[in-house]
Structures are given as C-alpha cells and as structure tokens.
Design goal:
By secondary structure, the protein is of the alpha+beta class. Helices cover 24% and strands 37% of the residues.
Length: 239
C-alpha cells in the first residue's frame, strides 16, 4: 500500500513538472537562437560595403584593358532535343574609367531561336585589389529567328542572330557592385547575372569588409571554382 502511494505521488510530481520543463526548454531554445543570430550578425559584415569604396582608399588605374569573360555552362536539360539554352557574359574595359558589361542569351527551340541581350555601360573606380563598377545606362534587345530545316544553329549561337529587333530600349540605370581583382580575374562579391542579383556570394561568407581574411579567401575559392555559374570573370585578351 505504501509502495503504491509513493509511486502515485512520484507520477503526479513528474506530470506537474512537465509544463515547467517544456517552458524551460523553449526558453533555452529561444535564447540559443538569439545568441546565434547575434554571433552571425557580429561575424558577418553589413553588405552595404559592396556598393561603394571608402573615400579614404587611394585610387589607381591599374586595370588592364580588354575583355573579362565569365565561364559558362549550358543550362538546358541533359539530352534535350527540343530546347537548348546558351548564354555568355563579359566585362569589357574600354578606358581607364569606362566599362561595358554584356549579357547574352540564346534560347533554342525546335523551330526558332529567341535571343536577348543586356548591355550596361558606366564607370569604375579601383583601389588596389578592389574595383567598383557603377552602371549608369542599360540597353536591352530582343529578337526571334525562325529556323529552317538544315540550318546550322551553331553559327547562330556565336553571334547576334538577328538583323532587326522586336525590342530595343535604352534607359538610365543605377547599379553598383564591388569586385575583387587578383591580377588576372574579377570576382563579384555578390552573385549577379544580367543585372539580376541573388542573396549569396563571397561577401555573404566574409567576416570583415575590404579585407582578405581566411573566410574571404575560402569563399572566393569556393565561388570562383563553381562549375555552374562561377562568380568570376577571367581576362582573356587585350585590345
């Protein structure tokens, strides 16, 4: 009888303590989330720094002229015979301050090619290994080419396939993005393609603004070596 009473008393005590433990666990979990957020916030720099160069940084013009080309992979489904997607991106250094950034896309269907081109023009500033590209103007072109039997599509993918365009617009456009220059290649600090950005990249995994820390170097290697859409433009020729 005593054993039974003791067992019942113990059981009731556990049940009474259960809500308390649950609340305590939730509180600890909440505190852990807050501490994790604070840690990430403190260790990751605010990303506004990738839109500008500090006024205190000395400027130079040691960026070779010519074309910097991004390695690209086809985006079409493997083995697809009905659709193929080719694209190309380049940054062309025109002078000691001016640049042109070109994005081109060829969507190849069974009976036609849909072509789209975006060209941004603007000026850049350089300070040692940091290059800020500031786009001021954007031109967009689109066109369609009907395919005939036996037509060589490979040649059409090596150039602009149209003589006229269904869309040809130019507008003022403000876009700023910082790149890292290692003496041969340009690495954007945030993913961007055709002036469309995504929320990831080298700066997102760095821990200190304008500094080549260990985390920065790891992120640069990681994104620069990606097989699909790498975050890098290699210098391919001088003009």
């Amino acid at each position: 009888m005593v054993d039974k009473i003791l067992f019942t008393s113990s059981s009731n005590s556990i049940e009474k303590n259960q809500p308390f433990r649950s609340k305590h666990q939730k509180k600890n979990f909440f505190l852990l989330l807050v501490l994790s957020a604070v840690f990430v916030f403190q260790c990751t720099p605010k990303l506004g720094w990738i839109r500008t160069l500090p006024d205190s940084f000395p400027r130079d013009r040691n960026l070779p002229f010519g074309t910097y080309e991004r390695p690209t992979e086809k985006k079409s489904a493997m083995g697809s015979k009905e659709f193929q997607l080719d694209w190309k991106e380049t940054i062309h250094i025109l002078s000691e301050q001016e640049f042109k950034k070109t994005w081109r896309e060829w969507r190849v269907y069974k009976d036609h090619i849909q072509f789209r081109q975006i060209i941004g023009k603007g000026q850049f500033e350089k300070s040692n290994e940091w290059v800020l590209f500031s786009t001021k103007q954007l031109n967009t072109k689109e066109c369609r080419v009907d395919l005939k039997p036996g037509m060589n599509t490979k040649r059409l993918l090596q150039k602009i396939p149209c003589t006229s365009f269904t869309m040809d617009t130019t507008k003022d456009f403000q876009h700023h993005l910082l790149y890292h220059y290692d003496g041969n290649s340009l690495y954007p600090l945030q993913y961007e393609s055709g002036y469309e950005e995504a929320n990831f990249g080298i700066a997102w995994e760095s821990d200190k603004a304008y500094t080549k820390t260990k985390l920065f170097e790891i992120a640069k290697w990681k994104y620069g070596k990606k097989e699909f859409q790498p975050h890098v433009y290699h210098h391919v020729k001088l003009d």
